[in-house]
Amino acid sequence: MQINQNSRATQLVDRFGRKVEYIRLSVTDRCDFRCVYCMAEEMQFLPRSEVLSLEELYLVARAFVELGVNKIRLTGGEPLVRRGILTLVEQLGQLPAELLITTNGSQLSGMAADLKRLGVDRLNISLDSLQPDKFKRLTRTGRLEQVLAGIDAAIAAGFKRIKLNAVVLKGRNDDEVLDLIAFARHKGVDITFIEEMPLGAITEHDRAEMYCSSDELLEMISAEYALIDSDEKTGGPSRYYRMADSDSRVGFISPHSHNFCSECNRVRMTVEGRLLLCLGNEHSMDLRRVVREHPNDIEVLKQHLIQAMELKPEQHHFDLADETPQIVRFMNMTGG
Ligand code: SAM
Ligand code: SF4
């Protein structure tokens, strides 16, 4: 939904003067994939009672928007496997905020048209490999052809913008970076390369050994394509480049090599309703307790959100050399 950025100043301002205008909601911890950098092979998912209901999720989103948030992203786990997700999307689609979804693409061939019709503005679709075997090894359970069909369905549905996300691991899929860019250009979509973050203990690989920095990728890509620096500010860890001969943009999400904390404009809510003030820190507020102790009371919830801004830390510290992850939650609890 289009909104006038100037007419709705956010009431969510932290101790460092940063305005929070963007909320990422994790709507489920479940997923049909088991990507090696995100989950363990055997996962214990939360009992349903610990997960916010669709009504509770909607109340939280509405409270944020009433306080001036203008961008909502649904993530997970895989948001499109949450039962009833289209009902929530329909409600959120009517709020005066931009609505985005991050998805693995597995359900898109059947859902893309409905998502567009119900008000989703933009999609991020994860795609780490264009080779079926490698895709399978990275996602453990995913089927590449299903995701490619989903990407085509999303393009046909006519979203304002579609962006592919690839987590690049050295020796696993760094040889596909140029192929992925060629694919994005061919499809007329954007692509962003993500540095792996140390969230949750995984045993499948050593994160430090497979770490592939955005600067290395930038050098490799620049040898093939002339990238034009774009000064677009995202308030997050992404930097974007344009290409002279294509509308597709190339982005890099670099939580390790580029500190973006001073511009941070976002907060996240885990699937259990824990409001995380920073992806790289444990500072949080239990919103599930608030919504369950005061059902449907949006004013009490809004007061808590305003108070929570006091907890937002100045910056994160990810340290790859440290073998124990500082952050013990898996990415599927918080969303990307
Ligand atoms: N299931 C959806 C998907 O895969 O797009 C949404 C949730 S997923 C957690 C969101 C994004 O986080 C994906 O692009 C995924 O590749 C990325 N991601 C997961 N674990 C990560 C990690 N340890 N480091 C960096 N990115 C990660
Ligand atoms: Fe599922 Fe997304 Fe995590 Fe992969 S990255 S396991 S698709 S939640």
Describe this structure in words.
With 336 residues, the chain is an alpha/beta fold. The protein contains eleven helices and twelve strands. A twelve-stranded mixed beta sheet has the order 7-8-9-6-5-4-3-2-1-10-11-12. Helix 1 packs parallel to helix 2 and helix 1 (54-66) crosses helix 10. Mean pLDDT is 89; it is low at 2-7. Residues 31, 33-35, 38-39, 76-78, 104, 126, 331-332 line the site of iron/sulfur cluster.
Give the radius of gyration: 19 Å
CATH class: Alpha Beta
The number of distinct helices, counting runs of at least 4 residues, comes to 11
CATH-assigned fold name: TIM Barrel
What string gives the helices and strands in order? EHEHEHEHHEHEHHEEEEEEHHH
How many domains make up the 3D coordinates?
A: 1
Q: How far apart, in Å, are the first and last alpha carbons?
A: 22 Å
Bound molecules: S-adenosylmethionine, iron/sulfur cluster
Tell me the fraction of residues in β-strands, as a range. 15-25%
Largest sheet: 12 strands, mixed
> Any low-confidence stretches, pLDDT <50, length ≥5?
2-7
Strand order of the largest sheet: 7-8-9-6-5-4-3-2-1-10-11-12
What's the architecture in CATH terms? Alpha-Beta Barrel
Derived structural class? alpha/beta
CATH superfamily: Aldolase class I
Give me the count of strands. Answer: 12
